[in-house]
Every structure is written in C-alpha cells, then in structure tokens.
Amino acid sequence: ELETERRHNEELLYNMLPSGAVERIRGGHVVADSYADASVVFIDMAGFTALTKRMSPGHLVDVLNCFFQHADACATEHGVEKVKTIGDGYLAIAGGNVATKNSADAAIAFARDVLTIVPELRRIAGTELGLRIGIHSGPVVGGVIGASRMAYDYWGETVNMASRLENCANINGIAISESCWLRATCRAEFGP
Q1: What is the pLDDT, as a whole number, of residue 7?
Q2: Alpha carbon of 69 to those of 72, 90, 123, 175, 183: distances in Å?
Q3: Nearest residue to 140 (alpha-carbon basis) of 1, 12, 33, 64
Q4: What CA–CA distance (Å, rounded) separates 132 from 97?
Q5: DSSP letter string, 29-83
Q6: In a 3-state reduction of DSSP, which class is residue 190?
Q7: Can you tell me the mean pLDDT for 42-61?
Q8: pLDDT for residue 113 is more than 90
Q9: CB 18 within 8 A of CB 152
C-alpha cells in the first residue's frame, strides 16, 4: 500500500513539474533554464467576465472545463506545453521543456486547433463568446521559484509580448508577431 501511494504521489508530482525540474529540486539545485527560440501562446475567452455575473458557478466551471480540456488535448497533439491557466486564460509554450521542430509552426497549429472548440463553448454557455489568441516567438527563461505551490513558469519579453498580442487579436482570431511570422514555414494563409 505504501508503494502504491508513493507511485501515485510521483505521478502527481511529474504531472505538475517537468521531470528534469523534479530531479534538480530533489538534488537541492536551482531550477532556471534558458530557451533561445520558443513561441508563447496566450489564449483568453472574450466575454467571459460578463458571463460571471449572469451564470451559476457550476455553469461557469462547465464552460471553462470544456475550453481547458480541449486546449490540453490540442497541446498534447501539437507538442505544446501547457504552462498554466489564469482565470479564463490559457498560457502555453512551444519550444520550452517539450522539444519541437519549429516552435512557431507548432504554436500556430495548436492555436488554430484550439479555435475549433468555439461552437461547443457557445452551445454550453448558451450565449456568444469567443477566443482571442496571441503568439510571439523569441527567447524565454523558465524555472521554478518559491517553496509552496511550486510550478514551472516562464518569463521574459516574449511572454509579455504574447500577452499584448492576445489583447489585440480579433475575437476568434490569432494575432502573431513578426518574429513568429518569420519563423513560420507556411505564410500564405496569414492576413496583414
């Protein structure tokens, strides 16, 4: 029974932190990494704040679960790492702890796939809502800070720029930076 519980605890730990980070923490080392070419994806649900005033907590959680579970599945499919959820927002990165051939291509494919959930979100919510997505490519720093509720997080101008781009995106649209566009292998489908 003790061994079963230990394995369960290990599974939970490796679900929350990258395996390399766990080993370094166990060894008493600082977890700080640099990634020269990552693509950061910020996704936010447009119209969600207004919904919080009109929907029951259970209904709100149903809408969020639908969105987050779909985004998690898309992340796995496209080799993108979920970093965290922030309220109704979703932060992910391609080219961080999960290796990818081209971080921009993976991030864009992930973002496009996530947008396919919008009709289902509208059905569950019973009202209009949508997603805004921002992607920026460049260097990031990742690591674990603090001693309670530890999580592997990412920082830097690339993360900040992706957040700003999300705010500029059209509803159910994707706004990417020039550096992301330059890294993408297929540019024919992009608008101005």
Answers
A1: 83
A2: 5, 11, 16, 23, 28
A3: 33
A4: 25
A5: --EEEEEEEEEEEEEEEETHHHHHHHS-HHHHHHHHHHHHHHHHHHHHHHT-EEE
A6: coil
A7: 91
A8: yes
A9: yes
Q: Which of 56-70, 86-100, 121-135, 141-155 has the lowest mean pLDDT?
A: 141-155
Amino acid of residue 166 = E
Helix, strand and coil content of the chain, in percent to the nearest 5, comes to 45, 25, 25
Share of the chain above pLDDT 90, in %: 65
The answer to whether the CB of 133 falls within 8 A of the CB of 115 is: yes
pLDDT higher than threshold 80 for residue 81: yes
- Helix segments in 17-56, DSSP class H: 19-26, 48-54
Q: Extract the tokens encoding 176.
A: 């990417």
Specify the pLDDT at position 169: 96
User: What does the block give as tokens for 140?
Assistant: 């990031």
Q: Is the pTM of this model over 0.85?
A: yes
Q: Which token pair is 116?
A: 């396919």
Give the pair of three-digit tokens for residue 155: 């920082």
Q: What pLDDT, on the 0 to 100 scale, is given for residue 99?
A: 84
| Termini Cα distance of the chain | 60
Please compute Rg for the chain using Cα positions.
18
Length of the chain: 192
24, 22, 84, 5: CA torsion to nearest 10? -160
